[in-house]
């Protein structure tokens, strides 16, 4: 039995969901039976979870603790070429703060509570107890790996795992960039929207925030379509404010979108609507 599969089995006995990685820390591609999620794999659905197919074809969603799958014939070709083992941190209620270089480590030691650390090729993984959204490049050399991503298994590390602090959660909440809305004449009748009530507007903004927050794939497209829908309904009637737009930007940036992408998506939606 090769080293990666033995390591995977050892982790599975400790309830850590694992998957094989090929060279370059890359997961194996879709198996022919479920190419492009043809099997109905759940990563594109609102409730993400493992694919129904037992093959390692959906990266983090393929992670399993089932030894029958790990050692079974469907995974055998992958293990023959596996270079390492990965695991799904969010699947066991963990968050990995991936520090890619020495400056990032210095920042973490100065800013974050001490916790278990694992040496990596270029830096360190800091492991916290608690799951959260995963976002890359929250600052220079710092990625957040938790739900819906995988992390390479590099050993148990040293130190005590501490509870996920607010300082880490705050890393994915970015201040929205300034938003410039089209200036339109205030409708007659005291400025009240002539075709929508304030309650309708608030509900619409809340639903738009929820739609962005629950996106599990194609986040760019979801953000654009959501902006387009909001502007189509409220962009010309005078009731949409900068505060409403800022809420949508904040929701998008919490999903990993950059401020620049938010601004571009908003501008493109306005252009599409002739605003």
Mean pLDDT equals: 80
What's the order of the H and E elements? HEEHHEEHEEEEEEHHHHH
Q: Which percent band covers the strand fraction? A: 5-15%
Helix/strand-derived category reads alpha+beta
**How many β-strand runs?**
10
The number of helical elements comes to: 9
Low-confidence stretches: 40-49, 179-191
Instruction: Report the sheet with the most strands, covering strand number, pairing sense and barrel closure.
Output: 6 strands, mixed
Describe the 3D structure.
This protein has 9 helices and 10 strands. The protein is of the alpha+beta class and 275 residues long. It is globular. The termini are far apart.
SSE order and pairing:
Layout: H1 3-12, E1 18-22, E2 26-27, H2 67-70, H3 76-81, E3 84-87, E4 94-99, H4 102-111, E5 116-119, E6 124-129, E7 135-139, E8 142-145, E9 151-152, E10 162-163, H5 166-169, H6 198-213, H7 219-234, H8 242-254, H9 259-272
Parallel strand pairs: 6-10
Antiparallel strand pairs: 1-2, 1-3, 3-9, 4-6, 4-8, 5-6, 7-8
Helix pairs in contact: 6-7, 6-8, 7-9
